[in-house]
Amino acid sequence: MRIALGVVEADAGEVRWDGRPVDLEARRRIGYMPEERGLYPRMTVADQLTYLARLHGLDAARARRSVDTWIERLGLGERRDEEVLKLSLGNQQRVQLAAALVHDPDVLVLDEPFSGLDPVAVDVMSDVLREKCAEGVPVVFSSHQLDLVERLCDRVGIIRAGRMVAVGTVEELRAHAAPRIEIHAPAAPPGWAEALPGVAVLERRDGRTLVELRDGADDQRLLEAALATGPVHEFARRPPSLAELFRHAVSEEGAA
Amino acid sequence: MSAWETIRLVAAREVRVRAASRATRIGTLVLVLAIVALVVVIALVSGSGSAAKVAFTPPTGALAQPLAVSAGLLGQEVETSTAADEAAGERQVRDGAVDALVAGTAQEPRIVVDEELGDTLRAALLAVARQQALDRAVQALGGDPAAVNRDVDAVRLEVVALDPHDPEHDERLVVGTIVGVLIYVALLTYGPIVAQGVVEEKTSRVVELLLSTIRAWQLMAGKVLGIGLVGLVQFVLLIAAGVIAGVATGVLTLPASVAAGTIAWAVAWYLLGYAVYALLFAAAGALVSRQEDVSSATLPLIMVIIVPYVIGISVLPGDPGNRLVAILSLVPLFAPTLMPIREAMGEAAAWELVLATGLTLATIALLVRGAGRVYVNAVLRTGARVRLREALGRA
User: Fold this and answer.
1) Contact A55 B212 (CB under 8 A)
2) From CA B347, how far away is CA B339, in angstroms rounded?
3) Secondary structure class of A30 (helix, strand, coil)
4) Three-state secondary structure along B178-230?
5) Does some domain include residue B161?
6) In terms of domains, do B357 and B297 share one?
7) What is the pTM of this model?
8) Phi/psi at B142 (nearest 5 deg)?
9) Nearest to B214 among A42, A55, A99 (CB)
10) pLDDT tens digits, residue range B7-45?
11) Do B9 and A41 touch (CB under 8 A)?
């Protein structure tokens, strides 16, 4: 992200937007939220946002209108003439988001936008991102709050040690993952599934067993083995959550 | 958006923030009051020995006019007044309303003073008394005192001064000292403000947001220009206050052309000095990430401002033509504080002014590259202090 915004030099490769390398002119059309949040502590909210809007090329009148809109939208109306220093952390984050949005950018690049937000602000932030997305503004953000990522994102990339180890929609990522099956067989004795080839038991609790099928192991063999232990009330595929996919992708790479 | 427009926006923010800050406003007010107070004090000190007040009793009233003339020849102004009688006059002397009372008769005047008679006034009174005696003697010999006096007055003393005393010398000394102080204070105020401004952006991390949309050199240029403009306005206000106070109190009597030249050079040297030091302070500020480290990073620069100034201000008033200071005043980093003092004292030759200005401008051109490079390389690096060589090295 910092390379895209020209803050750090790339060791190799190139960042392009619309087929052209991202230069200063293109960067001016990006809304950026750095991971290290940064605003002038002693400037008021309105002054600060107006200044940033002007630096991004808005004229005075448009800057004022846009500042008013975003201050209203993000619930900062009562704080507009207060110094950023005096705001709560949550409100500072809202100002930071407003700073990324105030020049009506063509692209949004947000580094950990949800960290440090209270639940209400998370909702506001999610709504704003969805809305921008619906307007056709590409939104790229990084996050470790994977439930949010799963809910919001069309495409997800998992980065490990500076390399993209998986990329695609959440469904695509799941398709690559080993299938997981949960079996509810109350009469099954401990260790009933461990011996089967290609089956790894992940969890056992209250007669329920969660297994992962590896190396193309046959689920029908698993079902037969389960039926052999007694009644089977449930035999279902359990799609892994993004968090599990993430853990898997990261550890797999570590093992390789 | 052009680079210039970006720089203008950055500079405008600096001006707004500084102009709105109480520190700037109160500081300016205090300095203006200080300079006016200084001028008033000078006026009071130099004006205390001006007109001597002398009262005359009615019998000696005829001596008032000759006394004013003879005292005038000695460079002493005299205000004369008439006392109703000797007793009344003595009271006035005792009260301090007049410096001396001339009693007795016009032929044999008696001077009444409180403690003692000043030398100048004594000489003037003695001259008048002798004149009276001379007039009577001329009359006794059958001559015409008026004709004799005309001949006597026609005598002129021709004086050839080998090293004439400049009547403006003392005044120039004072003006030079004040100009020096103003530039020195301005550099020591606004240089560190530039460094603090740079560090503030680093500490608050806002610099990353800024540099994602504008270039580092534009940020640096805007900051230096904006703060410099605030400093310039303050500097001009101070000079204006000093000139107005000086003219109003009658302390400033330099010819308008000399005063205008001195003011123009003072402003020029403020600008040159500020440019040199603002660039250096901006680079020094970019090397550190915490406000606590600013002072240690800028200390060498502050010493470079202080040391030559202290040498200059302690040597020049006693010895305006000092060779060492003359040489130091040509060195670009020292010239901004020393050259305007020498100029105001009337000691700087035209070629020296031109040479020092040229050298300083060349230094500024070098600093724009050097300090600019240090700033650009160091401003995004947070954490430990960046070493100067490292910041200069990477392109």
Assistant:
1) no
2) 9
3) strand
4) HHHHHHHHHHHHHHHHHHHHHHHHHHCCHHHHHHCCCCHHHHHHHHHHHHHHH
5) no
6) yes
7) 0.76
8) 85, 15
9) A55
10) 999 999 999 988 888 888 998 999 999 999 988 888 887
11) no
Contact (CB, 8 A) for B301 and B281: yes
CB contact under 8 A, A38 and B207: yes
Q: Of B204, B212, B215, which is closest to A40 when you measure between CB atoms?
A: B204
Inter-chain CB proximity A38 and B204 less than 8 Å? yes
E strands, chain A, are 16-17, 20-21, 30-33, 107-111, 139-142, 156-160, 163-168, 180-184, 199-205, 208-213, 234-237
Q: Measured between alpha carbons, how far is B222 from A55 in angstroms, rounded to an integer?
A: 12
- The residue among A225, A184, A224 whose CA lies nearest residue A206 is A184
pLDDT of chain B along its 395 residues, tens only?
A: 788 999 999 999 999 988 888 888 998 999 999 999 988 888 887 755 567 889 999 888 888 888 888 888 887 788 888 888 888 989 988 988 888 999 888 888 889 988 888 888 888 888 888 888 888 889 888 888 888 888 888 888 888 888 777 767 778 888 888 888 999 999 999 999 999 999 999 888 898 889 888 989 999 999 999 999 999 999 999 999 999 998 888 888 888 888 888 899 999 999 999 999 999 999 999 998 888 889 899 999 999 999 999 999 898 888 888 899 999 999 999 999 999 999 888 888 899 999 999 999 999 999 999 998 898 888 887 767 778 777 777 54
- Give yes or no: residues B231 and B135 share one domain: no
List of chain B residues whose C-beta atoms are within 8 Å of the C-beta of residue A54: 9
Interface residues of chain A, partner chain B, Cβ below 8 Å: 2, 5-8, 24, 27-28, 30, 32, 34, 36-43, 47, 51-52, 54-57, 99
* Closest CA of chain B from A112, distance in Å: 15
Contacts of A56 in chain B (CB under 8 A): 213
Structural domain contains residue B85: yes
Amino acid at the residue B75: G
pLDDT digits (tens, 9 = 90+) for B271-307: 999 999 999 999 999 998 888 889 899 999 999 999 9
* Residues in chain A within 8 Å Cβ distance of B202: none
* Distances from the Cα of B375 to the Cα of A163, A168, B10, B371, B372, angstroms: 31, 41, 16, 6, 5
B113 & B175 share domain: no
Task: Please tell me if residue B16 touches chain A, with a CB cutoff of 8 Å.
Answer: yes
Point out the residue among B1, B205, B214 whose CB comes nearest to the CB of A38: B205
What whole-number distance in Å separates Cα of residue B74 and Cα of residue B66?
Answer: 13
- Of the residues A36, A55, A93, the best mutation for testing chain B's interface (the one with the most B CB atoms within 10 Å of its CB) is A55
- Find which of B203, B209, B215, B223 to mutate to test the A interface (most A CBs within 10 Å of its CB): B209
Residues of the domain holding B205: 3-44+167-391
Q: Is B214 on the interface with A (CB under 8 A)?
A: yes
When scoring B202, B213, B379 by the number of chain A Cβ atoms within 10 A, the one with the most, hence best to mutate, is B213
Give the model confidence (pLDDT) of A82-137 as tens digits. 999 999 888 888 899 899 999 999 999 999 888 878 888 888 889 989 999 999 99
- At which of B97, B124, B154 does a domain end? B154
Residue B160 resides in a domain: no
Do B104 and B203 reside in the same domain of the chain?
A: no
Identify whether residues B87 and B62 lie together within a single domain.
yes
